[in-house]
From TrEMBL:
GO biological process: DNA-templated transcription initiation
Lineage, opening ranks: Bacteria, Pseudomonadati, Pseudomonadota, Gammaproteobacteria, Lysobacterales
Location of the DUF6596 domain: 188-288
GO molecular function, a single term: sigma factor activity
Species, as recorded: Luteimonas aestuarii
Pfam families per the UniProt record, alphabetical: DUF6596 (PF20239), Sigma70_r2 (PF04542), Sigma70_r4_2 (PF08281)
Protein name as catalogued: Sigma-70 family RNA polymerase sigma factor
Amino acid sequence: MPMPPVQRTIDAVWRAESPRLVAGLMRLVRDVDLAEEFAQDALVAALERWPRDGVPDNPGAWLMTTAKHRALDRLRRDRMSADKHAQLAHELDDAHELAHAREQAALDDEIGDDLLRLIFVACHPSLSLQARVALTLRLLGGLTTDEIARAFLVPEATIAQRIVRAKRTLADGKAAYEVPRRAELDERMPAVLGVVYLVFNEGYGATAGDDLLRPALCNEALRLGRLLVGLLPQHAEAHGLLALMELQASRMAARTSSSGEPVLLADQDRTQWDRRAIERGLAALEHAQIRSPRRGTYTLQAAIAACHARADSVEGTDWARIVALYGELAEAAPSPVVALNHAVAVSMLLGPAAALPLVEALQDDPAMKRYHLLPAVRGDLLQKLGHHDEAREAFTLAAGMTRNERERALLLSRAGQGARR
């Protein structure tokens, strides 16, 4: 049964607004679980009222106002200490005082954006790097636990445990919600960059659902990336990440057909690529390389994306340079996903027979057991080599592993092509 229009609207609004909602509430109540609970209360209220009263003109503001009121009611009902109650009630009740408090806070901290500020806060040094990224993706990236697990290539239960432990650690830490000063920003940057990148990736290729792309997530990640560059202009990897996202985002319009089906890189109409985004990406890449002679992981990935952006066709792409860059990336940050991408580049440079052993060597890696692109790439190589039965099996396996309906349809279509030969 199709979802009612109002329900679809609420779902879309919640996807877009929940990170900001949690960020704003965390700044007020300074408690992760309370912020999430009040945000959920606002969602429940929207589900009850909007079908009856209509969607408000500014749904995000409506949700925030409702969440604040629910927070105040809860704080009163739970009889919090008089001092804390008075402080929070004052902030929640008086919009003018709240605005003034935010202005004062902006003078004291260097970040200035609620969402970015809370990403830095949640990336506290008391947490492991993996826990910081998992928590901030859950709270502020708007990703589900399952989506985060797939991004990390680990079981969902592992991510759930990381998030619970991270919340507990922050709750027990007296300085958990202090905004870091400039001297502390560099220490937290790797996790912050990781969060922004994974948010962008979820927008660029949705883990699940009916659509391949979630442009709002890409746009939000780009916005945060630009803020990071402005905040720390000498940080080479901030420029590298921004370059990577700009260059990847330049292809968005060509990645799907008019009806939403995925379009593979080889079949994309490159006249649809956004030239201004490419120019911004190449400029950011140049800034990154100027600031550090030793290229980091985001700068290396941006350099790979730049090879695609500069080429007028797949055949005209500098695959030798891409293979070399993936080799450099594998040394800097070895991972099975990098190895798989390297194998794809090898196939374009030397042919599918040279790449197939590299791909098959990854099949026993535990991290790749749930990664649908491994059998998808293997199927592509087998198909090019004329092994159509094996290719069909690989594409069918990949289709069964993905939770994105558009990707599943494409993979099943490719499996069917092999069966018809």
